[in-house]
Amino acid sequence: MRSEQETVKAIERYADTVRRLCVIHLKNDADTEDIFQTVFLKYVLSSVSFENDEHEKAWFIRVTINACKDLLRSFFRGHTVSLDEVPEQPAELPPDYRDVWDAVFSLPQNYRDVVYLHYFEDYTAPQISRILGKNVNTVYTLLTRSKRMLREKLGGEYDYE
Amino acid sequence: MNDKFKEIFGQIRAEEELKNRTRLFLAGKTRGYARAGTEKRRRPVYAAYAAACLLSVLLGGRWLYFAPIAEISIDINPSIELRVNRFDQVISVDGLNGDGQALAQGLDVKYRTYTAAIEKILHHDRIAALLSNDEVMAITVSGSDELRSVRILSEVEACTAEHRNTYYYVAPPEDAAAAHELGLSCGKYRAFLELRRLDPDITPEAVGEMTMREIWELAGRLSPDGGNGLPPYGSQENGHHGHHGRGGNANKRRRRMPSPALARYSSSSAEDSGGFPPIFISCHFSLVMRSCRGLDPSKGPTYPRSSSWSTSRAARE
Question: Which CATH class is domain A1-85?
Answer without folding.
Answer: mainly alpha
